[in-house]
Every structure is written in structure tokens, then in C-alpha cells.
């Protein structure tokens, strides 16, 4: 029973992919993705219950779900539900506009299911090698989704995405090889199993482990969109279709960051807390600086959201650098809150792009008067990203900042806070211009108001309400977060 | 035994430097295939040394994948290019490239010192060479403006990492090894398809054309 539960979040979307590959995208199969996501979410919730009650679930030494993995499964499946609900309207609009064919829609649905299965495998793998294979598989699967529109820009984005992510993550593979070398000579028999490695960390050769940790953090950090190897992110996220951007920004980045969190536990055990902390602070401040400097004069709203994702990954890195139970719980809560808010925003941005035909910020005016529901959701999403109450990012950002000061990295936390304020101001200015004011008249103006499709509206509302509810109470998630923080936050 | 191992490792580094030196893409692909053979030879030597049938099978698999399938895919990717587009125009000239390769090899020696110190076996002593191949591959990746030669840079990195894996701990587990090989094969396939689309939309595979997206 436990074993079936643990593999369900991988197997269900894999079956969904098979259904779409065989039956294609048609009226009868539009709800397969929603059913698959809902069943996976149910399985993830049951897994989380089991993990809290009985400790980690293990499957044949290959998969292991502990509290952190169970939490990540919840994040993946919850956002998969949002995206699955909104996808039929998105694809229908693309098909109506003849931008894609039925064949492309079939590819889209199949690859998205495979993408979800690969992410679920990544967070349940017991072995760093399997985790690597699953993460690299996500790059390959999403490459065609990024390049789906086949325009010059889409092909360019797909090429950069595959080349930068694959070579960045190749560094992580070298790191795994080096860590395997240290592990093989430590006589602990840990291999590449991350739980065993975390336990055996004090016996690992520090010189070799140091090389491995640098490679692993830079490598997995590339995939998580952390500077300096973040260049693929704004291109890929702005060119991918909206539901895919929502998954890439809301979940994929965090899944890669999950790998960084696992590495940090091993690094802390082998080298003390200072080494990984220094690397993560550097990555965090560099990412925030990149996001701030490129957001101020940003002209494209999808790229604006992409840079905001770099900002939030930087905040996660800062929280991970602080370490300790408070920071770790805040980091994980931030992953969920950011995932919900960012997928709402990317889904909303996709709808804006479909109705206005432009992704330029100055091409969209007076959205609030023409499409009030959409404008309301986007506005609320941006307020959530800024970390305003009642949204959960308020609680998690506060937690990260408090933990940063408590951990003695006050200077870095202060610098990060200043950058977050700059980024917030830029986001407010850009979105304000899009939502407020009067709509432009004459040629090139936005077409007549179009009602928001019911399923898109549902997804946007669930996301916003979910993010707000999490900000007031984490409810049953509290225990899971405590367990997860205990697993990751061994060293204060 | 040690001599054969050193010859194979030397061939690995030599082919990497040759890729950096030559500009003609057809030649680069041929050199890359040679490197695949050298890598398979290196693993075969280790298999012989340890009397391991599993490693021998891995060596055979590497020979097929990196000496045969991947170069064949690369040749297919350049087959459609017009004659004028079969040369790569590197950002660095030959002399600077070779100097950089020398510097990167020294860097690899310095960086991998702790790895060698941990287990000074003949195989582990060759690890710096594998790391040098990774670094040279990275240099090819960032200094070449042609899609296929960039792809070769990525594959050089991967050959270096695979070599490092076998020289340190006889690989990273058969399951993961197969997964990695599959991932690399798929990356090449994806990039081959993208090269075709690039030719469709840009009429060229020169990456200088990729400047639609920027801030």
C-alpha cells in the first residue's frame, strides 16, 4: 500500500502521458490531465499523512519519500491541478487562432504529463544519480514545449535553454562523480544515497567534498535559475506557452532548488555550516542583483515575471544559507506560496497575451476596465509576489529575513531586503501601467472586452485564495513542515 | 597496464585539444568520434584490469554510443548545411585557444589534487586529464558560434565526466550510467531537431543569428 502510494505521483502522470500519446487531444481527453493531477494530489496528501505518522516511505532502495519529498510532491501536484484546469481554455484559444494544430496540442498534453512524472521522480529519488537523471529528463521533455511556437524567438529560447541547462547540470554530474569518489573511500558504503551520505558526511574527505559541493550547487543552481548561470530563464519562460511557463516557474525551479537543499545537508555535515552558506549567499545576492537591475527597465511582462522568479530563487537561497528549522520551514512555505502566485500570474499573462496579442508592457493599457476579472487576479498575484499580507509569501519572507538576522548573516539579509524593495517598486510600476489607466483607442488597441473562460477563472481564483489561506494558517501542513525542517535543518 | 591506461587518457586529452584547434566541422566530428573510441578503450582497460564483465559491457556500449551513434547524429545535423556554413568561426583565434587549453589543463591538475591524494591509484592519477577534457569542452562550448560545434563542446564535457566517473569509482552505478547515457543521447536528438528548425527559420545555424531575445 505504502509502495503504491509512493509511486502513484510518478505513475499516474506517466499513464496520462500514454493516454494523450495514444488518443490525442480531443474533447473526450481534455479532462484526463485534471483527473490525473487531482488523483496525484490525493496520493501526495496520503503520502504526506503516512510520512508524518510512520516516517519515510522507502521503495526498493531506489525511491524514498521523507517529509521534504512529501511536501515537494504536494507542491508539484497542487500546481499541476491549477495548470490542468486552465490548460483546455488556453489550448482552445490557440487552436481557434490557428497558432497551433491538433497535433501540437497532443504533443503539449503528452509532454506536460511526462514533465510532471519526471519532477515527481526527482523529489522521490533516494539516489543523487537518479535525481540527476530525472532533472535532466525535465530539460529534454520541456525543450519542445519551450520551442512550441516555432518562431525565431521560440527556437532561440529552446536552443539556449537546452544548451545552458544541460551543460550547467553536467557540472552537477561531475560533482556527483566526485562525491561518489569521496563516498567510496569513506568505508561507509553510502554510495550516492543522499540519506546515507548525510549520515556519513563527517567521514567524507573534506578536500574532495568541497570540490563536489561547489560543482553540485553551481550545477543544480543553474537549473534553479540562480545567477550566474540564469541566462536561459527569461528567454525560456517568456517563450514557453503559458501553462508550461507556470509549471517551469512555479515548480521546476523549486524542484531543482530541492536538490540544492539535499546537497547542503551533506555539505554541512562534511564541512561545517560555513562553506555552503558562503556559496548560497553569493548566489542569492547575485540573483537578486540581476533581477533588480533587469526589472527596472523591463518592457516585456512575461520576462518581468521570469526575472521575478530569479528574485524568489535568490530569496530561497538566502533562506537556505541562514539554515536552521525556522528558515527551512519558511523556505519550503515560500516554495509553495511562490508556486501558487507565479502560476496564477503566468496563466493570467498567457490570457493577456491571447487577448491583446502583445507581450509588451506598453502594449497593454487599462486592463482593469476591459477585463476586470483577469486584471483582479493579476493584481492580486503581484501583491502576493510582493509579500504583502494576507498572502503566504508575507509569512515566509518574514521568516527568511528573521532567520537571516538570527543566523548572523545580517549584512547579506539587509542587502537582500533592499534589493527586494527595489524589485517590488519595479513590479508595481510595470503592473500598474498595465492594469490602470484608459485603454488605448484606434488601430492596435486592445479588442473588445472578452469574458474570462470559466476554467481559467477557476484556476486563477483557486491559486489566489490558496495563497491567501496559507498566509493565515498552514493548517495540517504545519506538522509536515516541522518534520521537513527537522530533516533538513540539522545545523542551525 | 598502466602504459595502456595512460595512452588512452592521453588520447582523450589530445582529441579534445584537436577539436579546439580545428575549424572545419566535419573534421571536428571525426575527431570527436576518435575521442569516443579512446574513452571506450579507457574503460576496456579498466575492465581488463578488474576482470569485470559488467565494465566490459559498458565499454562496448560506450564504443557504440560515443564512437558511432553520436558522431552519426552530428554528421546528419551538418549534412543539410550549405558548403559555406561548414566552418566554425570561433571567438578566440587558434593561438589563444591553445594557450587557454594549456592553462585549463594546469587548472585541472591543481583542482583535482585532493581527488588524487585520496586514492593514489594509477586510475585516479589520470583523473586530472578527464577534468581537463571537461574544461576544454566548456571552452569549446562558449567560444564557438556554430550550432554543431557548440554541441560537440557539450559532448566533450560529457566524455570528460564519464571518464572521471570510471577513473575514480568505476562508474556511478549501472542504472544511473544508463540513465545518463540516455539523457545525453536525447539531448543530442533534441538539439539536432532544433538545428533543423533553426535552418528552417533562420536559414543558417550560425548562433550569431540568435539575438532576438535580450534585455
UniProtKB/TrEMBL annotation, chain A:
Superkingdom: Bacteria
Chain ranges passing through the membrane: 6-25, 32-51, 71-93, 105-123, 129-146, 158-179, 211-232, 244-263, 275-297, 373-393, 405-428
One GO BP: ATP synthesis coupled electron transport
Domain NADH:quinone oxidoreductase/Mrp antiporter transmembrane per the UniProt entry, residue ranges: 125-417
Primary location recorded for the protein, binned into one broad class: membrane
Annotated InterPro entries: ComplexI-like_HydComp, NADH_UbQ_OxRdtase, ND/Mrp_TM
Topology class, membrane: Multi-pass membrane protein
Keywords, ordered alphabetically: Cell membrane, Membrane, Oxidoreductase, Transmembrane, Transmembrane helix
Pfam families per UniProt: Proton_antipo_M
Record GO terms (molecular function): NADH dehydrogenase (ubiquinone) activity; oxidoreductase activity
Cellular compartment(s): Cell membrane; Membrane
GO cellular component, one term: plasma membrane
UniProt-recorded name of the protein: Hydrogenase-4 component F
Species of the source: Pseudonocardia cypriaca
UniProtKB/TrEMBL annotation, chain B:
Keyword match Cell membrane: yes
The protein's name in its UniProt record: Hydrogenase-4 component E
UniProt lineage: Bacteria, Bacillati, Actinomycetota, Actinomycetes, Pseudonocardiales
Location relative to the cell: Cell membrane
Keyword Heme in record: no
UniProt KW keywords: Cell membrane, Membrane, Transmembrane, Transmembrane helix
GO cellular component: plasma membrane
InterPro entries attached to this UniProt entry: HyfE-like
